[in-house]
């Protein structure tokens, strides 16, 4: 991952105009709810005074609603932090803040009275873990696109790791990890994330907790026999390691995450999909490959970069920005195309895993014309 590049000319022409992100492409629209779950068995080691660890979540549920409303992509406090943060991280001279403050997500209204909107309950649940430092909110477009195919998608902020988390009461927790972690530091960062995943799965059965996060659903626990996990970068690695430790996780998908941490000597049996940039021959991933004993597939996606596996391309394009000057950072693939690819492979992988039969024409490579950017690197056990 190479983040340094020279000064760029970005024209944020409509800097103060709201812009709407794409409507989810699938057969449902989605509801969007945010809330936190508190783990009283673990203190947050990042906090100055120990407090129970509070993971912040966004929940995207498939719903039938004929009309959507637009809601802020991020709370103001989070959005205003992102511009200066990324400008410093990537050495960009333009003011990026409006991209985050002005973006609007089209979602079903919360009020069940309007538009006959009702979530369709009890679809399989997909936990989503973001890249290191990156707030969960950078994946809301992709998460809603996946949810629109019939999954409950829950994106997670890991405290101390996400650069900023704004909680429902308005208080914030800032990330305090290193800007460029060493491999050892990345490895240490994985395990609190893995514990967060198991904690969330446990709380899905907690009627009180669910009623607090999803007031409209009320005290109805989720069934946890259809849960899987995916993520981007360190979040993708988190998904794989979490699956190896928690048998309730039925499958894992890693979007472009170098491997950190270790798998148990017996390996893991759940299906694992790895989607990467082109020509990434990550030795750590190759070393872990034989430990994946279930169905496994590694594909790469042409014209992507590490950042293409997030909402960032969509945000720039929806804001009317030319992404060409940022090609090194963002990739050159069209935002709608990378979303289609990520949604199609994720849905096919997860549906196959939940049905106990990973396969089908897309994953088997029998539809080469559907996504010409995608090529098989390695495949096993299906
Ligand atoms: C940031 O960009 C400027 C302008 O191109 C350049 O002079 C400077 O060296 C860059 N800084 C870093 C840390 O790359
Ligand atoms: C619904 O509630 C969530 C908080 O759970 C909020 O973030 C979102 O903006 C609300 N949506 C609408 C359409 O008001
Ligand atoms: C968290 O910290 C508080 C205050 O120091 C302490 O009383 C409590 O036992 C700690 N809880 C856990 C689970 O470590
Ligand atoms: C989703 O909402 C849009 C309006 O924003 C509407 O045009 C579309 O038909 C809805 N899709 C579904 C599947 O209900
Ligand atoms: C966020 O900031 C905008 C622009 O300053 C303001 O109009 C809006 O009311 C703020 N939203 C909230 C929830 O405070
Ligand atoms: C269930 O959730 C409630 C509300 O968040 C919490 O107070 C309680 O400790 C949870 N119960 C268990 C067993 O985790
Ligand atoms: C990837 O590697 C192959 C074989 O070395 C090479 O032909 C191809 O141009 C490379 N593609 C990219 C995008 O670097
Ligand atoms: C990658 O982008 C280039 C330039 O836009 C294009 O010519 C090429 O067909 C793309 N590759 C794939 C596999 O789509």
Polypeptide structure, described:
With 382 residues, this protein is of the alpha/beta class. The chain has a single domain, classed as Alpha/Beta hydrolase fold, catalytic domain (Rossmann fold), CATH 3.40.50. Helix content is 29%, strand content 24%. It is built from 11 helices and 15 strands. Strands 2, 3, 6, 7, 8, 11, 12, 13, 14 and 15 form a 10-stranded mixed beta sheet that branches. The protein has a 3-stranded mixed beta sheet with strand order 1-5-4. It has a two-stranded antiparallel sheet with strand order 9-10. A hairpin with a 5-residue loop joins β9 (164-166) and β10 (172-174). α4 packs across α6. Mean pLDDT is 91; it is low at 1-9. The protein binds 2-acetamido-2-deoxy-beta-D-glucopyranose (8 copies).
Task: Reconstruct the topology from this structure.
Layout: E1 19-20, E2 29-43, E3 52-64, E4 69-72, H1 76-90, H2 97-102, E5 103-107, E6 118-119, E7 125-129, H3 140-147, E8 152-157, E9 164-166, E10 172-174, H4 183-203, H5 207-213, E11 227-232, H6 234-245, E12 249-255, E13 272-277, H7 283-288, E14 296-301, H8 312-318, H9 327-330, H10 335-354, H11 361-364, E15 374-380
Parallel strand pairs: 1-5, 7-8, 7-11, 11-12, 12-13, 13-14
Antiparallel strand pairs: 2-3, 3-6, 3-8, 4-5, 9-10, 14-15
Helix pairs in contact: 4-6
The structure holds 2-acetamido-2-deoxy-beta-D-glucopyranose (NAG) (8 copies).
